[in-house]
TrEMBL record:
One of its GO terms (molecular function) is ATP binding. PROSITE patterns: ABC_TRANSPORTER_2 (PS50893). PANTHER family: ABC TRANSPORTER ATP-BINDING PROTEIN, MALTODEXTRIN IMPORT ATP-BINDING PROTEIN MSMX. Residues 4-241 form the ABC transporter domain. Keywords: ATP-binding, Cell membrane, Membrane, Nucleotide-binding, Transport. The keyword Nucleotide-binding applies. This is ABC transporter ATP-binding protein.
């Protein structure tokens, strides 16, 4: 497996890019550490597949370099990069058995029969395909076919990384989580460099050690699932991750306080000073999970009017009005609150982030 480094990579599909808008991928620097499990997360069209194809060599970037373990492979074709790719639709040979499908990448490279058999058996065991090795691939379920596809990547010892592009899209919802768990187990055992493309935050957050969040051709944050949840570096990450996403309230800064709809909240003096000099629209970000109902007059609290309360089993989700702005609040199940009531909500400074022009003020 390899450490993969992308240096100043950018890509435009038009032959002569005239402006920044022509770039599907804006200039970015990224390092995928050897053995890491990464998710590449972002909405449709943000550039995930473009980035993946640049790593595998299916696409040559307009600008920048791709390095595997320090060696520049920007000009190297896919077959010289030893990347295993698993696509949305499993790529397997229907006329072959499961065993022959798994053995194919090794036979192709001239590996001996006994070593091939041993590797196939090992991978089949790992992916729970042992009882099915003799079955013909045609007619097998989608999740089995995708496991075979993954197995064809894992069977080779020389792969630099395994890239998976939305591999669970065609899998039935009730077996999706099984396959996800399997993939996580396989990664824990083999520690291969794994890049998993998805637009599904649950998939990304459960599978990966680190998540690369993309939006409009840019990498907006790289972090652990916890960092993305607790410290979104960008309003897009705050909103895109979480269910519902972060509350992002337009605000102003006055002295050492943030003012939202006429209500003042004291904030760190340094943050306020940096926000003033940063420029761009200011927003105060707080996740629904971190808001707390408190008695009137509690520091860092605001008065709101509740407009809706949904009972979601283990917790309640309330919508409240702070002046003209709506806030989502996650409340404990036992909290008694009805639409039309007013209450005070604390925005603990520790969980409150100020954004200027979409970026978090450090
Ligand atoms: N072959 C191509 N020619 C021209 N434009 C392309 C091509 N492939 C992708 N694009 C454009 O580049 C941008 C990024 O596309 P890409 O497929 O990388 O996004 P994605 O995040 O993988 O989306 P999805 O989740 O829908 O697959 C999009 O605007 C897309 O329309």
């Amino acid at each position: 497996m390899a450490r993969i480094e992308l240096r100043s990579i950018a890509h435009a599909y038009v032959a002569v890019p005239a402006s920044e808008q022509d770039y599907a991928l804006r200039p970015l620097e990224l390092v995928w550490e050897d053995g890491g499990a990464y998710a590449l997360l972002g909405p449709s069209g943000c550039g995930k597949t473009t980035l993946l194809n640049i790593i595998s060599g299916l696409l040559r970037p307009t600008r920048g370099q791709v390095l595997f373990d320090g060696v520049d492979v920007t000009e190297a074709p896919p077959q010289r990069r030893n990347i295993a790719q698993v696509f949305q639709f499993p790529v397997i040979y229907d006329t072959m058995t499961v065993s022959e499908n798994l053995a194919f990448p090794l036979r192709n490279r001239g590996l001996g029969a006994s070593e091939t058999r041993a590797r196939v058996e090992e991978v089949a065991e790992l992916l729970e395909l042992t009882p099915d090795l003799r079955l013909r691939a045609s007619g097998l379920s989608a999740d089995m076919r995708q496991r075979i596809s993954l197995g064809r990547g894992l069977v080779r010892r020389d792969v630099a990384a395994i890239l998976l592009d939305e591999p669970l899209t065609v899998i039935d919802p009730h077996v999706k989580w099984l396959l996800r768990r399997k993939l996580k187990q396989v990664h824990e055992q083999l520690k291969m460099t794994l890049v998993y493309v998805t637009h599904d935050q649950v998939e990304a957050l459960t599978l990966a050690d680190r998540v690369v969040v993309m939006n409009q051709g840019r990498v907006v944050q790289v972090g652990t699932p916890q960092e993305l949840f607790e410290r979104p570096a960008d309003t897009f990450v705050g909103y895109f991750i979480g269910s519902p996403g972060m509350n992002l309230l337009p605000c102003t800064v006055e002295d050492d306080a943030v003012v939202v709809e006429g209500q003042r909240l004291a904030l760190d003096a340094g943050v306020c000073a940096r926000a003033r000099s940063a420029g761009g629209e200011l927003r105060l970000g707080i996740r629904p999970e971190f808001l707390r109902r408190v008695p009137e007059g509690t520091p860092s609290s605001v008065r709101v009017e509740v407009t809706q309360v949904e009972n979601l089993g283990r917790h309640k989700l309330a919508t409240a009005k702070l002046g003209a702005q709506a806030l989502k609040v996650r409340l404990p199940e036992e909290e008694r609150l009805a639409p039309g009531e007013s209450c005070w909500l604390e925005l603990p400074p520790r969980w409150t982030t100020l954004y200027a022009g979409g970026r978090a003020i450090p």
